[in-house]
Amino acid sequence: MAKKSMEVVKGIDLARYMGRWYEIASFPSRFQPKNGINTRATYTLRDDGTVNVLNETWNDGKRGYIEGTAYKADPKSDEAKLKVKFYVPPFLPIIPVTGDYWVLYLDDEYRYALIGQPSRSYLWILCRENHLDEEVYNQLVEKAKEEGYDVTKLKKTTHTNPPPEAEDAPADTKGIWWLKSIFGK
Description:
Largest sheet: 8 strands, antiparallel, barrel
Order of helices and strands: HEEEEEEEEHEH
Number of strands: 9
Strand order of the largest sheet: 1-2-3-4-5-6-7-8
Shape: globular
Distance between the termini: 35 Å
Number of helices: 3
Strand content: 35-45%
């Protein structure tokens, strides 16, 4: 049986979507360290309408990060279907990697969001704060389930209070986190 097509948010206000989002839960991926904590993304709208993406996570006390660019998959569409492009490895960015970033749900106040992509291999629950009310979390999980995701793969992300600031942590300048993540560490 074919999976139904996913519903995505329409009419997203990209300027309002910008800022910091904390990863509350996600499907584990080979692009992130297995034991990463305080994972977050910061989005900044550029003058040309593209979005600067800064993904950060902390592993063994060090800040790992990668920067990329997001843009509307179809500039004429009102659907919140974006493409995200990163160059890897982060310590020698030479290989472009492009993925889908579909906003499946976004509350009216732009406080929490459900992000996925058409293969249903990746899923993120994001929030403006580093914690999310359990009832809201469960509603987002249910929405993901309705969209055909195997929600048993969701893993909650550990966060500390207060969240770390990038300036306070030593950076993983060699991209060790990225290399480890490729090998499932």
